[in-house]
Each structure stands twice: as C-alpha cells, then as structure tokens.
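Notebook B, p. 112. Complex prediction, attempt 2.
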Amino acid sequence: MDFSQTHFELFGLPATYALDRERLDAAYRELQNTVHPDRFAAQPEAEQRLAMQWATRVNEAYQMLKHPVNRGVYLLSLQGIDALHAGNTRMAPAFLMQQMEWREAIENARAQRSPDALDALTDDLRAVHRRIETQLGDLLDGVRDYAAATEAVRQLRFMDKLIAEVGDVYEELET
Amino acid sequence: MALLQIAEPGMSAAPHQHRLAVGIDLGTTNSLVATVRSGMAVVLDDEAGRSLLPSVVRYHADGVVDVGHVAQSAQNRDPHNTIVSAKRFMGRGLADIEDVASLPYRFVDAPGMLQLKTAAGVRSPVEISAEILRALRQRAEAALGGELVGAVITVPAYFDDAQRQATKDAAQVAGLNVLRLLNEPTAAAIAYGLDNAAEGVYAVYDFGGGTFDISILRLSRGVFEVLATHGDSALGGDDFDQRVFCWILEQGRFAPLSANDARLLLTKARDAKEALTEHTEVRVTAVLSTGEMMDATLTQDEFNRMTAGLVNKTLVPTRKALRDAGLSADDVKGVVMVGGSTRMPCIRQAVADFFRQTPLTNLDPDKVVALGAATQADVLAGNRAGDDWLLLDVIPLSLGLETMGGLTEKVIPRNTTIPTARAQEFTTFKDGQTAMSVHVLQGERELATDCRSLARFELRGIPPMVAGAARIRVTFQVDADGLLSVSAREQSTGVEASVQVKPSYGLADSDITRMLKDAFTHARDDMYARALTEQIVEAQGLIAATRAALAEDGALLNAAETAAVEAGIASLETLLGGSDHHALKRGVEALNAATTEFAQRRMDRNVRRAMAGQKLENFG
C-alpha cells in the first residue's frame, strides 16, 4: 500500500474541490470490488488482514472526498493548512450574527413543536450550505485564496452542525 | 491425473472442490439454516420436513439438552429450565431486561452479561445460543454429508459490539467457523435484490420476535451499499404477546400466577396474536392449574388499539434512518418486509402508510434472511468468482471514549461504512501522570454512563511529563463483522497497549474454552480430533492457495523469495503427516508470515489493474 498517494490519486481523480461524483463512486466501487475482505474470506490470513487494511483505507478516502466539509479540509491539508485547528477562529461577524438568528429559529420551532417551521428552516440551511460549497469551490480551484477557503470550510461545518441540530429537534418532536 | 485449475486474472481463488458453507438465521423465536445447492439457495429442513427450529433450549438435570420443538412442547411444564428467546439476553446485563419480573427464569446477575440457573447448572446466553447453533450445524452436516468449512451468521443490524461478540462466541462454542457476521436486513436485501435484479434505494423493514431493524440501502450495479441503519434491539413480536398477555390478565382477574400458568398464558397470548393475522377476532380460553378459568373474545380492532404504541415505536427509528441517509420516504423505491412480525396486518398498514406504497412481501419473511446469508456464505467460502455483487455495510451505533467529566467523545460515528479505522489523540491531565485509563463506549448519548460500556483498559508506562505534553493516540479498528479492536500508543515513547474489545461482559477466552469442553463432554465428541482436523483443513487450504498464487503471480517474486515461500510450503507439508495440532498451527502461522510480502505485492498489482480499467472506462 502506497501511503504517499493522496486520496485523489487513489481514485484517479484530479485534486480539485469540484467533484465528479459519478466517477468517484465508480472508482470506489471498483476498488472495493478488488480489495474488500469478502473477496478474501477463503484466502490465507495474511491476505485477509491485508484486505481489511486496504478496504479501510479506501473507505476512509471515500468518506474524505465524498463529504463537502471533509473534502475542503483535506484539500487544505494538502496545502499544509489545518483548517479545523482550535486556534483558527476567524469568522465574519455577519456570519456569526446569522448563526445566532438560526439558533433562535430552531429554538422557536422546538417551543412551538412545529414540523413546518423545521421543514422551512431545513430548506434555508441547505440552500446556504450549497451556496458556501460553490464559493469554496471557487476559492480552492479558482482564485486559490486558502485563507478565505479555510473560513468557508469552517462556515460549512457550522452549517452541518445546525442541520444536525434541526434533526435532533425532529427526533424530539417524534418521540 | 487432476487438471490444474487456473484462476481468473486478478482473482486469487485457490483451486478446490465445492466447500460446504451455510447461512444461519439465529432468531429470537425461530432459527433456520440454509445453503446453496446447484446455484440455488435453499433452506435445510429437519428429518420431519420442518424448516423452522424454535429457538428454545431445555436443560435436564442429567445433562441432556433438548433443542427446538421437543423443548418448546415442554415450556409450559418446565418453564424454569426451558429457555425461550435467549437472543434477548445476549451481551446483556440484568438491568437491561425490562420485563424481568414477568419472565419465568431464575436469573443470575453476572458482570456484563446475565446468566440463567437451570437444572443442569448455571448457563450463559452464549451457551444456550450455542445449543441452537449446534443443532443447526448437525442438521446441515447430515443433509450435506460432510463437515462445514464455515457459516455466515446473521445478527440484527442494531446489535451493538457486545451482542455481536456474544454471537460470535456462541458460534465458536458450537464448533462453527464464522465466515462473517451479517446484518439481517442486509442478508434479506441480498436475497431480494438478486432475485429481482433491483436497482435504486430500498428500505428493509425487519421486525422479528425480539428485535426491530430498519436499513436503507442503495443497490447499484451489484453493489449493496447500506446508507443508514437504525432500530431497537429490544422491540419485537414478543412485546405484542406481552400486550395480549396483560389483556388476558385483565379479563381473567387471576390470583398471582405460578411460573407454569404464566408460561401457559403467554403461549395463549401468542396464539391469539397469530390467529388475528387471518381473522378479525379470536376467542381466548384458558384453564389454570388453580382451576381458575377465562373465556373472552379479542377483536382485531382491540388488538390494534392496544399495540398502536408499539407499531409507532418502529416508525421513530425508520425516520431517523432516512434522515441519516439524507433521504425522504419518497426516495424509497421499494420496502422489503422481513421477519415473522411483519405478518401482522397492523404492521403492513403502518408501513404502507408511512412509505406511501405497498410493501414487498413476495419472499417468505421467515426464510429470506437465511437464504441471503447462505448466498453470502457461498461467496465467502470461495465457491463462486464472487464479483457478482459486493456488500458495503455500516456500524449501527457510534463508538467512542470517555473523556474528562464523564462525557463521551465520538471516534467513529454511526452509519460509517466498515471496515473502518479512526485515530484520536488525547493527552494527560496531571503533571507526572504515568498511566491512562481508556474506557471504550458505544452509543449516541453525551454522558458516558448513558452509553454501553464495551471495555476498559490501561495504558501504563507513560514517561512522567507535564500535564498536556504526552500525546496518546487511540486507534479504533472495526472489521467487516462490525467488531471493534482498540489500541493506544504514546507517540513520543512508543509505549503501546491494545485490546480486542471483549471484556466488559465478562466472557474471557478461558470461559469459552470451558464451554467448549463442556459441550464436547456432552456431545461425546473428541475435541482434540476436531482441532486437528480443523488445522489440517486450514494447512491444506493455505498450501493450495499459496501454490495457486505462485503459479499465477510467481513473476512478482525473485528467485530467492520464491525459494523461501517454497521452503515454507515444504515444511508445512511435512507437518501434515503428524498429529500435533499445535505444531501444525505454528507451521500455518510461519507460512502466513513468509507470504505476507508476496500477498502485498499481489494486492498492489490488483489495485493498479482495477484502476487502469477505471481510467479506460472513464475515457470511453
């Protein structure tokens, strides 16, 4: 196993934020078809162990590239930037304000036990998520502004957390 | 002279004859065994032509053990020693079982996993399940006329690590080689998907006697990718029986029940539930040992009313699974119904309403899991090229560690595709701290005490440093069975500790050895002979596989390397003539070690080939 290979190289993809999802999925399936432990269950132990290591590596790489936040973090790490480093807290005040408003909206929906309000909120959050993804693509692949890209990745992560919080409220209303 | 077989390029299938492998559905209420014969998955029946083996075990004082129908027929007569639904106790402590008071057993609380007192002594749920597995193994070996190379055993997708490990231990005690633990809904998806050449997103709603699972899968070009799974490992048809049982108690206004009468009424409750699948009402009558009587009619409407809460309880995990998969009910192309409890009309209606489509019931809900498991066992045993399909499954519950203040730090989130590994760094809390305790947890809750404790171990020998200076890297590895192992390493000094996560429920390797011995004493089987046979089979398999690899890919080795591998084969062959299974085991390990580098080169080459094919396809 060549650990110096990047996740992009492993799947034979260009190292860009813009992603050909079908190509990634096809390469992932092809690789798992080759290395998955189920292919080696009747084989000697050494090969089974190796298959597990390979399949683990392929799964990790796939998770990293498939997920919008992870892919951004990974591309920045290839530039030597630790986007999620605890000391890295730069964030536009307007975005932080917006965050607080969304949190209030989630609280209101919870208090009113209103699935409709949650649905509307989910749509809003997803739309913003998509917008930041587009910006991030431009920052990483186009203008190569890694400082701004780092901030965008962190914003995306905030959005993921909000979406997860909405999920928790749905759950609360259901039980 | 036998002809040499040549494996397909890229595949390392060793030449061999058809290897006997089975799929086992170890159910709460009933269990089944299936195999692939002439390319078709079939359930194996007992000598009376019955396919379901009731998951009931009865212990006699003289050590005789009854399994299945014989045991089931004694459950009202001998409720303390006749264990029904032992699966519910696998990897569970007494505190985990909600309805302890209404069960007729004599429980013994033991660390991690409860035990049961029977006429034959105290038994662990692992041993009880092993009796069921052994009965199925014997059924299969009689039907197939030979020893099994292995079995795929199904578990509820929502089983946690302790429950999975307990299942694997039970198989070991039953003398079965586990090819894979397979999630029940995934097994059903194989049986269904391959039968129907399905493509798209499917939900598998699996409601059995004691467990509920929901899995959302994407079927695409032969890949079964589980997107999310959820469930309730303590919700099943048994709970519906309990509701009817309570209704019977209300109707009968009985004095406190003896264990026998309680068992009798539970059986009546179950019969009534089953009758309501076909009829709109059922008459329930019973005469207790005290002479008390009851005679009442239960209507389907009344039944639906009193079980509506249970039906709803299955929809909560269903919504969660969809949310985790990032999908809505409308994205689901078909809903496959699995498990005996999906026969209840109220369940079918609720599922139809939720997904706004008629659920698929064309495969026997009792058999579909075993059939899928058998199909997978056939592939894993190496009986087919195996590139027809691939399963990508997930872990159902997050895995994590306890951190300061009793909080849970998630290391691997639920619904991560397996196998997987994840590392997390921790540091010391006090100056000069030389040991660190690692507490491994499974569950979604924030407080460690609300999650299931899987293991505790200590990393010792950390050199004294100021607080926060040590770098302790804890690595979680989850294998294709969904089983976890954890290792910890101090980065600057390399001090290491690791565990195969087993301990919390208290079954050590020595316990398993004892259970195996007990089992063999009763079965009048020769453990030593069996161990030798197993080692011989393994050694022969390894030699054949290594020879096949040399024939196919010898070019990847230079002359000296080839000679070393051949020497390893030769020395293992000499050991084959002997009768020392320990020596044989060491020989197998030595040849495995000698071929590690060779295996790596073959794998690297296969990966390069696969990716080269990809590029061509993409340009084409």
